[in-house]
Please model this.
Amino acid sequence: MRRLALCLSLSVAAGLLLVTPAAHADDARLREAVKRLNVASETNAGYERDKFRHWVDANGDCQDTRDEVLDQESKTAVSGCDIQRGRWFSYYDKRTWSRSSDVDIDHMVALKEAWGSGAKKWNSNTRERYANDLGDRRSLVAVTDNVNSSKGDQDPSSWLPQYGRCRYVAEWTVVKLRWRLKVNRAEKAALLRVARNCANVKLHWRTARIGLGGGSGDDTGSSAAGARFTKVVYDPAGSDDGSNVNQEVAVIKNATKKAKDLTGWRLRDSAGATYRFPGYTLRPGATVTVHSGNGNNHAGHLYADWGYTWNNTGDKATLRNKAGTVADRCGWGDGGGTASC
Model:
């Protein structure tokens, strides 16, 4: 039996000495890897998506995690900070896409599933690293958006892709082992059932560093978590002769329980037009409407003074905090006039 080195981490907030295994390289054949998964009951009590700060620009190169994966997986060369065009093959359904708006970046093991199988015990830094794991390409995968929506937070006992099931089970298993996440009985039975009919390939992975406790993961203040688009009106009623420019709006909500300082935040379209927020604090649960025209800023309403900006035939609104971390995105295609985000 391999003896694992141990590292000690002190959780000051909890006042406890927590012992976690050190990161190390490992490998196993597929069926053996599945057997290694530890079985435990799962509960999603206390889960909130905002406890996993995701789509950050960890290396400061202007591409956040989503764009990094789009860059890695495109079959053709891509460019820019906010990647719009490329060529992505979704192995879940064997579809190929050229517009990034048709592609989701799937957390192989969904954030909610991770929470219930062990991540609730992690500190906020570990959850952020999990949500943006570029250290193993199996953790994040570009797939057709509506297929990803159909998967949701389900595990393999209730959802498997139409194609590539052997690959999917191998990748799911590796992610769970990499992050020392448990499986429930139905999940493990499903993994074993599929693996029996797959080539017993050798898998390699490196376990991740896990920090326990010491942080609730509730992001507040000026962090990106919790700020969400509710809608973008990109084609308001009337003639685009300037009379309806202030009806072209982006509506943003503070979904947290604490006030959020939006000072220095940026709102951007796909072409690079950028509105920088002035000194502004958004109350808990409140919304702010950013108008494309000009006017006097007041409670709940800000004016970008950038004229008609949102493209009627397809565009994407991106909201970043002062540090450049993406808080949310909202994209749309041609037609409809309003995007519900």
